[in-house]
Amino acid sequence: MSRVQKGLVAGFAATVAVSILEAVNMAVGHWAVSFPQLLSVMLKMPDTPAVGWVAHIAVGTLVLGPLFAILCPRLPTDTPESKGILFAVGAFILMGLFLAPLMNVGMFFMRAGFGTLAWMIASHAIFGIVLGNVYGRLVRREKLHPPVNAAPAH
């Protein structure tokens, strides 16, 4: 399995983990605006939450997972989980500084309130922990049990 394939798997796992938290937030507490809700607003379809969910799953799996896999060996921390946190919170900072203001939801989504900012930082950190953990396990597994007639992962 290539690094990018491992990133796809890890990105999907991390997206599922955070999506469960987002669903609980929306169903039980709704203590902050969920990321899929923000995405549907950013995509100019606030009344269609499914669009936000599809975008959330697609970006987490198809963009952030593979990008993490490419950057992981270059990130300056020791564990895959800390690399994941650094990557995911860094992605949030870039999105909050550049993309959110362009989409008219305020820098760091502040139009949705401070609770949403705190929720976004926490959920991105959780995304990063799961992303790094799953990716690290896939890399370790391949190093311990290399596939027959395959090149090493790194």
Count every helix, treating DSSP H or I runs of 4 or more residues as helices: 5
Report on the biggest sheet: none
Structural class: mainly alpha
Quote the distance from N terminus to C terminus. 11 Å
Work out the radius of gyration: 16 Å
Cα shape: elongated
What fraction strand?
Answer: under 5%
How do the SSEs run, as a string of H and E? Answer: HHHHH
Average pLDDT confidence is 90
Give the beta-strand count: 0
Q: Low-confidence stretches at least 5 residues in length (pLDDT < 50)?
A: none
- Percent of residues in helices: over 70%
Could you name the key traits of this structure?
154 residues, mainly alpha, 5 helices, 0% strand
How would you explain this protein's 3D organization?
With 154 residues, the protein is mainly α. 73% of the residues lie in helices and 0% in strands. It contains 5 helices and no strands. The model has no long low-confidence stretch (mean pLDDT 90).
